[in-house]
Amino acid sequence: MEQKKERGLKEIVAARIELFKRKPEAAIYKPKATSKHVRGLYTETKVREHLVKSDYGEAAGGTNLAPNPIELLLSAVAACIEAAFYEFAEHEGIKVQSLAVDVEGTLDLRGFFMVDESVTPGFQDLKYTFTIETSDDEAKVRDLAERVVAHCPVVDSLKRPISLTGNFLIRNT
């Protein structure tokens, strides 16, 4: 029996780039997440077939079963940068021994707790440290890292205003 050859990441990226050049409509991606309250400040969110848990630390009234939503946002920034870099490093033939991304943000919780309307509830800043271990040329690696951060959809979604619309479905019981 003939074994099906698995495509490597390099081939997958190249094929996707070519497809998106030929058929821009094929590049439209609409991810979805559905979150449900479980108890207290603990929630479970379904993303594809995955379960993402969220909770707050005990000092904030949670049970510390999982990261809180703002920490999940930081992890999304870190994961997007890291995965995208690895994906495009493979595509461009850059050898990676290890990658790590640390992301830290500053919040003034007076905004979230509606204590001071002049304080925004979101991050005041985000800072990342991207550590790349490689034997390849530093300038080439830095160029790719800068392009990846500039094209990371999570980073971009935080840096520029986007449309956010919603509905409130309130059911009286």
For the record, the count of structural domains works out to 2
**Helix-strand pattern:** HEEEHEHEHH
Total helical segments = 5
Strands in their spatial order, largest beta sheet? 1-2-3
The overall strand count is 5
CATH topology of the largest domain: GMP Synthetase, Chain A, domain 3
Structural class: alpha+beta
Identify the CATH class of the largest domain. Alpha Beta
Considering DSSP H and I runs of 4 or more, what fraction of the residues is helical? 25-40%
Q: Assess the beta-strand content as a share of residues.
A: 15-25%
Write down the Rg.
20 Å
Average of pLDDT: 94
CATH homology group of the largest domain: K homology (KH) domain
Please give the oligomerization state of what you see: single chain
Biggest sheet descriptor: 3 strands, antiparallel
C-alpha termini separation: 61 Å
Supply the CATH architecture of the largest domain. Answer: 2-Layer Sandwich
* Apparent shape: globular
Which regions have little confidence, pLDDT < 50, spanning 5+ residues?
1-5
